[in-house]
Amino acid sequence: MSFKEIYEKSIKKPEEFWRSLADDIFWFKKPSKILNSTKPPFYRWYEDGVTNTCYNALDLHIQNGLGDKIALIYDSPITGNKSKFTFKELKNKVSKFAGALKNQGIGKGDRVVIYMPMVPEAVIAMLACGRIGAIHSVVFGGFASNELASRIDDSKAKILVTASCGFEPGRTVEYRPLVDGALKLAKHKLEKVIFYQRKNHEIKLNSPLEISWNESLQNAKDTDCVEMNSNDYAYILYTSGTTGIPKGIVRDIGGHIVALKWTMKNIYNIDQDDVWWSASDIGWIVGHSYIVYAPLFKGCTTLLFEGKPVGTPDAGVFWRVISEYKIKSLFTAPTAFRAIKKEDPDGKFFSKYDLSSFKSLFLAGERADPDTIKWAENLLKVPVIDHWWQTETSWAISSNCTGIEMMKTKYGSACKAVPGYDVKIIKPDQTIAKANEMGDIVVKLPLPPGTFPTLWNADKRYEDNYMSNYKGYYQTYDAGHIDEDGYIWIMSRTDDIINVAGHRLSTGAIEEVLSEHKSVAECAVIGIADKLKGQLPIGLLTLKAGVAQDNEAISKECIKMIRDKIGPVAAFKSAIVVKRLPKTRSGKILRGTVRKIADKEDYKMPATIDDPKILDEIKEELIKNNILK
Ligand code: COA
Ligand code: AMP
Fold first, then answer.
1. Domain boundaries 501-624, corresponding CATH code
2. Is 285 in the pocket of ligand 2 (CB under 6 A)?
3. Alpha-carbon separation of residue 84 from 49, 56, 95, 198, 280 (angstroms)
4. What is the architecture, at CATH level 2, of domain 3-39+53-480?
5. 618 CB under 6 A from ligand 2?
6. What pLDDT band is residue 244 in, cutting at 50, 70 and 90?
7. Domain spans of the chain?
8. Model pTM?
């Protein structure tokens, strides 16, 4: 069938479409009901099906004779370690660790927070949760104690699985102080903390709360997959909301397996014999879906990479990995390619390696600028595909579906809506936009399987936040247009979310922390364009009357506060003290206008501005601070 036929079937006859795809996964009990739409906007896919995430990722392939095939490759240029695990070996490790979790009293529905670097044990812990029906919540290692604590509190986890340390270029990330800080801040008390001791970086553990990974395995029995209802949750992944309180995106089990397995061939053109690499981190949705779950559901080989695109050791490491393991396709964020392009614009490292296995590059997480796409195409001589998705959906909303039909590239567009997603643009007057008209990007309900059925313990927030502004649609909070050929153009976010190196951050959350500084009266955080990371946050601060501290000291303290309370990943390096913030007469801070000034974009003087001179003052400060050059 052509792409058009498949797409139309998915939209016009969704139940028929997703019924036939459900046959491709293992069920203990096949679902008889495909979609329950009785309580919109809460839709349920495959609600009477019974299955297991880990069974579909590992056991099924062993049963089908693939036990000796490599499931997971670990390559860590930052430590010099490499290893490979067959499906059988991975299953044995997962089933033992599942036994270890069980010994700690973990069972169906219990939450396990995983705060780990990119080591195979992190994948093992995720899959072990799936095996026994526990719900994991992975927290990215670049987040600080505060963020870890808020996730422990919201999920009410029983156990934290962590490590003695992670490695970043030039520094060791000690998890001990981060974990201790989180345990102090969290109101909810954990029952156990399991530390994976990294070689030559063992730390002293405090019993009885803490035990090592190896200790936890003593007396652990091999443990089989439990039968799970299709609508039970596989995981919670917290993502930035518009306030400091992160949103717990939940994923149900059956729909997740069906949808993700389907994407491997249909979007990425990956077959079971292929080797696939997603250079992300398991702490992000891309890592959940495309380092761990989708490739393992498909039964192909997936690669876990503990390193950076540059500096571990050089800008040739991606090419070394692709050629060493015969990778067919790579999925990463545009930032990674901008970093490589900056260090090695002429592709000198590239010419050293044989990349004959390599067939396509997929980019997502932030807007892929046409310059970077063209540079990558020129160098790699393979299709470079920008596709668009969100933590909420767990798989692409729009993409070139290369396994169905290769479509032409339109630079700057994330291609067409993927089967399952009925994407529309709604204009400010609430009408559906015509081709090329700008507006809010929405998806007609129901969302397809694998997307979020609700937020963790927050049905009302789910409904209010995503499903209320446009009845019958999911609001993506991205704005853009769809052109006459159906290509989707993502132009900006409509809330306060910014994308820093493909990492989603809330400027509102940064403002909440800055306003806790004793000298800060008011603040505004905006994301300004950055050549490498796409966007970077900067803070503008006004001070309370009579503050004696000098501006430089306040600025340094504010930068440190963000690093300590949100984490280094916020990449917050500029806190600028200004006399006044530009506001409308009704008191709304004109963040958008400041952003345009900082990005040297044309802007109209807002008619409602309180005092236009403030914009000149801000401009001067931006110049003084080297932001505006
Ligand atoms: N644990 C602890 N700290 C971490 C971390 C982790 N897992 N990941 C990043 N950090 C820290 C970094 O060490 C850095 O700290 P610093 O301020 O002390 O230097 C800070 O967070 C910012 O990190 P990062 O955004 O990675 O910037 P960088 O300057 O170290 O590296 C790139 C720049 C482009 C190489 C890097 O951003 C990159 O690889 N991007 C790819 C994007 C990506 O994979 N996105 C995932 C979504 S698809
Ligand atoms: P996250 O939930 O972290 O994956 O971030 C999702 C957000 O990243 C989206 O809502 C977009 O704003 C942005 N994003 C992801 N992919 C793209 C893309 N291909 N083009 C433009 N923006 C993107």
1. 3.30.300.30
2. yes
3. 33, 20, 17, 18, 19
4. 3-Layer(aba) Sandwich (3.40)
5. no
6. low
7. 3-39+53-480, 501-624
8. 0.96
